[in-house]
Amino acid sequence: MPVTTLPALDPALLPFVDQAERVLTGRRVAVLTGAGVSTDSGIPDYRGEGAPVRNPMTFQTFLGDARARQRYWAGSHLGWRYFAVAGPNAGHEAIADLELAGVVNGVVTQNVDGLHLRAGSRHVVDVHGSMDRVFCLACGQQFAREDIAVRMTRDNPWLAEPENVKLNPDGDVDIDAVGEMIVPTCTVCEGMLKPDVVFFGEFVPTTKFAAAAALIRSADALLIAGSSLVVNSGIRLLEQAARRRLPIVIVNRGETKGDARATLKIDAGTSEVLSALTERMTA
Predict the structure, then answer these.
(1) pLDDT digits over 126-159, tens only?
(2) Within this chain, do residues 227 and 139 fall inside the same structural domain, yes or no?
(3) Which DSSP state fits 45?
(4) Which residue has the higher pLDDT, 180 or 107?
(5) CA nearest 28: which of 93, 100, 91, 102?
(6) At which of 145, 165, 197 does a domain end?
(7) Which residues are tagged catalytic?
(8) Element (H, E) at 77
(9) Pairing mode, if any, of strands 221-225 and 193-197?
(10) What are the strands, taking DSSP E only, across 24-154?
(11) Which of 122, 238, 240, 277 minimizes the number of CB atoms within 10 Å of its CB?
């Protein structure tokens, strides 16, 4: 597991960390994470303070507009190059350590960056998919994103030297000048390829949500980190925990849609709080 310098904890947060420890100790904890867990890895948050207003690609537009697909694949490819080298931060590692210690039974993540697995978490349900996989919408064949990236660079040499690339939370970047962009197709059937992520306008796959719900059902408490709970999948899982009267601890900068139902809300960064909490609970 990578070694990350632990961020300093604001002394004012110590009573909240102590309270979180009391709430969670002796319980089997399920963890739900959002984009706020990955901001310390250099991946921006859609909804955090200062986040730019975006109009991300919808599934309907992706399917129906060839020009939009060119723009998406060009931007997604440039973003992937930066996305793929981002490393887990102290928050990811803290969650992995809690799982290794038997405190956490698994992680449900809304992120598509794969950083929980790279940090050492073993039971991860990526409800919105993962950017490291691509599949064919026609025949279902799956491809590694790295292999698709090699093909795209070969077919579109101009993508090799991007300038002024600004990464978005889904691994995409905004780009308008796509030129004669050659979009990758399935090598099995020539069908349309799509990254294995849930686009806006798409539903979370039934099997994925069922796996996430099962993880919550097997837990005695829910720890939510770095999610504003605006996305439907997150709030549904919180409601499941609330119906069972599970203790719910939320760690997030700013307001979330679940604050009123939380046993404890800690308004702070996830890396420092999770690191401090893990140090106490694994000592």
Answers:
(1) 999 999 999 999 999 999 999 999 999 899 887 7
(2) no
(3) P
(4) 107
(5) 102
(6) 197
(7) 128
(8) helix 66-83
(9) unpaired
(10) 29-33, 104-109, 124-126, 129-136, 142-144
(11) 122
